[in-house]
């Protein structure tokens, strides 16, 4: 394998991905987390005054190892959410935002152009064919997913049952894997 010819260009694109993520996608994640936290608190308040919640609290009072909200964490609409559910909520907001989709497509196009300049169109098409979709869209999807995971780790969030093996497997689909 030869030396990379366009390192400055790839660095610029990576900087754009990071800046765009911090400016446009991290706020989507924050807003989604705030919404989820609010819904969980509302659900917990309603549960704590219900018959099941009161009985659970009474049972837990005699056993300090028992969590009175365990049932809610399993059966509650909001309190049973997992990291994958949170990422899916973020993904839906991003996928439904036409401006973000257009921006991600522009970034993917810029990345594609740089890669084609680096390896040639024939090799690019070959790799896309092996992948089963356009390499630029696949990379954009992968990179944004990695930035999301990095933010979650940095922020020590979400306050959901964090299944890191699921989170690593989970690749959010923003623009889908398109052909070029």
Verbal overview:
The protein has 180 residues and is mainly alpha-helical. α1 (7-48) crosses α4 (83-95), α5 (98-119) packs across α6 (121-131) and α5 packs across α7. 73% of the residues lie in helices and 0% in strands. It is built from 8 helices and no strands.
Radius of gyration: 21 Å
The SSE string, one letter per element, is HHHHHHHH
List low-confidence stretches.
161-173
Quote the beta fraction: under 5%
User: Which word captures the global form?
Assistant: elongated
Helix content: over 70%
Number of helices: 8
> What composes the largest sheet?
none
Mean pLDDT: 86
What is the distance, rounded to the nearest whole angstrom, between the alpha carbons of the first and last residues?
Answer: 25 Å
Helix/sheet category? mainly alpha
Number of strands: 0
Q: Can you lay out the helices and strands and say which pair or pack?
A:
Elements: H1 7-48, H2 51-61, H3 70-75, H4 83-95, H5 98-119, H6 121-131, H7 135-155, H8 164-169
Could you write a compact summary of the structure shown?
The protein has 180 residues and is an all-alpha fold.
Keywords:
180 residues; mainly alpha; 0% strand; elongated
